[in-house]
Structure formats: structure tokens, C-alpha cells
Amino acid sequence: MTKLDLNPSEFDDYYSRYINKLSDVTKLRKGFEIGEITLIDFFKSIPEEKLTYRYQPEKWSVKEILQHLIDTERIFMYRCFRIARRDTTALAGYDQNIYIKPSEANTKSLDSLLNEFTINRNHSIALLNSLTDEDLSFIGNANGGAMSARAAAFIILGHDIWHMEVIQNNYL
């Protein structure tokens, strides 16, 4: 299954910003494996003094962005799982901003955050490997709009790229 298999009706237009970061031939399951290595290498390349840097006072630090990526993957894989299991219950949205302060990301070591990311990513990969293409094609409702299970997963991959580009352009 590749990004080309996605139909724009499978996700709200808001998520196009993330989906469009992916190549048309991005394979869903392989993308999670490649993305894990890419993200870890990217964050390990950031100088220590930049990990708690904010380019504006109200912006998140690099560590907080990494925590945000972990938290968002958890939420979107939960959506993917419920939708793939044919759960038609409308799934609530979430306010990403309120997650940052209680996460205390800036008090965690980079190694700790990357370990948390790796464990979470491996869980996501195991879940995707347990689902059929038919399961992943099922469409449910998340945050008030249609979302397929596979769209929820592809969004994670593009979301990671989006934030790595933000860090590259604004923090480094």
C-alpha cells in the first residue's frame, strides 16, 4: 500500500499539509521503518545546546517537538486501530498545546526521548503489520471528519517530516 492508494476523501483537507510531504510511492509499512531511522538520526545530529532552544518564546523547544511527535503518533495510531477494527464511534480531537507542559520534555534526556520514540514506533509497526489492507482502508470519523485507518497512519509519516523541516529551518 502506497500513498497513491489514498483518496482525498479519506482525510480532512487540513491533513494534506502532512500527506503532501510524502512521495507518491511511499509504502506505508516500510515508511514507518525508514522513518524511525531517519528521525533518530536527525535528532541525534542536533547539537546539545539546541535541544531546549526556542526561536520565539511561545514556540516549543526541540525536545518538546520530539515529545509532540511521540504523543501525536500515539493518538493517530489509536485512531488507526479503532477505525481499522470498524469502530464507527466519532473519535475526539485533541489540543496538542496542553500536552507539552505536563510532558516535561525539557527535563528528559535526548536518549530517554529517543527510547520512548523507538518503543512507540515499534508498537506502531507491529500494529500496522497486524492489519490487512482491507482493515486499513476502512473509513471512520476522527475530529469531526472522515478518516481512513491508513490515512491516520500516513499522516504520522508526513507529520514527522513536517516537524523535522520546521526544526531545520527555524532552530538550526
Structure description:
It is a single chain. The chain is mainly alpha-helical. It has seven helices and two strands, in the order ααααααββα. A two-stranded antiparallel sheet has the order 1-2. A hairpin with a 2-residue loop joins strand 1 and strand 2. The protein starts with 15 loop residues before the first helix and ends with a helix. The model has no long low-confidence stretch (mean pLDDT 97).
Q: How many E-type strands?
A: 2
Class by alpha and beta content: mainly alpha
Compute the gyration radius: what is it?
Answer: 16 Å
Strand content: under 5%
Mean pLDDT: 97
The termini sit apart by 34 Å
Tally of contiguous helical segments? 7
Largest sheet: 2 strands, antiparallel
**Spatial arrangement of strands, main beta sheet:** 1-2
Runs in which pLDDT lies below 50 for 5 or more consecutive residues are: none
> What is the 3D shape?
globular
**Secondary structure: helix percent:** 55-70%
* SSE arrangement, N to C: HHHHHHEEH
Question: Which secondary structure elements does this structure contain, and how are they paired or packed?
Answer:
Elements: H1 16-19, H2 28-44, H3 62-84, H4 96-103, H5 110-130, H6 133-137, E1 139-142, E2 145-148, H7 149-170
Helix pairs in contact: 2-5, 2-7, 3-4, 3-5, 3-7
What can be said about this structure in brief?
This protein is mostly helical.
Defining key terms:
single chain; 172 residues; mainly alpha; 7 helices; 2 strands; 58% helix
